[in-house]
Amino acid sequence: MIFGSDFVNKGIPVVIIFTLAQFINSITGGVGFTLIMTGKQKIEFYNSIGLFFVNFTLNLILIPSLGCMGAAIATATSVIFSNILRLMQVYIFYKMQPYGINYLKTIVPAIMATVLLLLTQKVNLLPIGQLMLNVFIVLGIFLIYTRFTGVDEDEQYIWNLIKQKFAFRLGA
């Protein structure tokens, strides 16, 4: 709402599409870097060229009819496609994939939080009230889910590092 109703009506869907693309980009891990660091720089170079041409072509097709939404769809499609391609390449070359059962500890509560956030968007609150409600929902769902699923060794290690850092700063 800070940017006005025009942004809310036209900009938010664009931001959501870019967010989805970035989400896919982040969950595929560093597959592009994996290719580079393992001697497959040329393949990653060709991946990047392909990403450019797919993005450029989709933008030429979609922007005239859809405007900024077309640009968002084109870019998101290109990013998602290229990251899935890189993920498949890493699996083909090295029989590696970055996913395990512990991914469910993030995906399940994220889906639950998303559904609840979408359901609560119709509540008429001041922007700060909506922000506080959203934070409460997300933190609550993740804390409750973690309570039921437990904390694994890596999470406990990170939690202990955080506690040590704050204890040091507080002089404890």
From TrEMBL:
<dbReference type="InterPro" id="IPR050833">
    <property type="entry name" value="Poly_Biosynth_Transport"/>
</dbReference>
<feature type="transmembrane region" description="Helical">
    <location>
        <begin position="125"/>
        <end position="145"/>
    </location>
</feature>
<protein>
    <recommendedName>
        <fullName>Polysaccharide biosynthesis protein C-terminal domain-containing protein</fullName>
    </recommendedName>
</protein>
<keyword id="KW-1133">Transmembrane helix</keyword>
<feature type="transmembrane region" description="Helical">
    <location>
        <begin position="100"/>
        <end position="119"/>
    </location>
</feature>
<keyword id="KW-0472">Membrane</keyword>
<keyword id="KW-0812">Transmembrane</keyword>
<feature type="transmembrane region" description="Helical">
    <location>
        <begin position="12"/>
        <end position="33"/>
    </location>
</feature>
<keyword id="KW-1003">Cell membrane</keyword>
<feature type="transmembrane region" description="Helical">
    <location>
        <begin position="69"/>
        <end position="88"/>
    </location>
</feature>
<dbReference type="GO" id="GO:0005886">
    <property type="term" value="C:plasma membrane"/>
</dbReference>
